[in-house]
Amino acid sequence: MDCSKCKLKLKPEELLKCNACSITLHYTCAGLDMAGFKKILPMNKPKWKCANCKPSKLGSPIVFNKVCEESEEMSSIINIDTESLISLINRRFDSLKDSIDTFKTEVNARLTQLSDTVSSFDQRISSAEARIESLSETTMKLASENISLSNAVDLLKMELSDREQEFLCNDVEISGITETKEENVGHIVQVLANKLGLSINECDIVSATRVGVFRPGGLVENVSGKGSNVAAEPRPRPIAVRFARRSVKDGIINAARVRRGATTADCDLPGPSRRFYVNERLTRTNRWLFNKAREEGKRHGWRFIWTKEGKVLVRKEQGKASHRIRSEMDLASVFGSDKVGTNVPRPSTTNY
């Protein structure tokens, strides 16, 4: 298709066709520039009229001049099909509304999904809180049971220690006696009893033996019944004695207290004259408690720490109430210490 004015080929994107005379023109041949051509809406191009077919305001034919070109540009802008424009606007609004509706639908779907996720998280958090609360209650219950069991174990330990001490009710412990290789421990006990003013027969002694860790360096060679100067251990092993009757045991304990400070002088025993001690025989637990009670009593100024019938007793001063020490807690309670020494050793059956 050729331009009716310049006779050159027309491209579709440059074409203008007059609705009145059907001539075809380049938009430049019609007196429009690119901006003016683009201002003609697509819906108005089929109704476009060339300058010759448009009546002028003066009623005379319009020629292609600068004034006509400006008039053509203005007429192409003003000459608008209102219904087509409204229809286009409506379609655009309908399209926009559809887009908005689609967006709202997607947003609502996402919000619903987010709400479901939040609800799921809320349920999980609630479940976790319930579990934590349950675990907390279980922990508190277990802690309470643990305390109860610990108290029960402590009570059982004390009862076991008391039972073990009852097993030693006829026993005494004699310390400070020189140890020799071929000594007769039963005879030594009888000699010491005589020294304390008591007469004891062999039938009164159930057993008598050295107890504790054996130290070879503590032995003294017995030469012709006399002790020789072989490096003697300062503290030889004590002698554990079990009597047949409780009365014999109580008698020797009382005699030792009356004759406090007695020595082995004139007893015809090996080694140099030494002071000896006779005490109730205590279990390992009570012996530990007694030693600790003496340490704490000395540190806190308690005057009286003693044992009676296997019980460890303390009194701060004359006229004050006495306290029995059965456990480490008693030590802390009586002497006001947060922690006393090391843990109390476990009760164990005492063997000769």
UniProtKB/TrEMBL annotation:
Record key words, sorted: Metal-binding, Zinc, Zinc-finger
Residue stretches making up the Zinc finger PHD-type domain: 2-54
Keyword Metal-binding: yes
Protein name: Zinc finger PHD-type domain-containing protein
Organism per entry: Plutella xylostella (Diamondback moth)
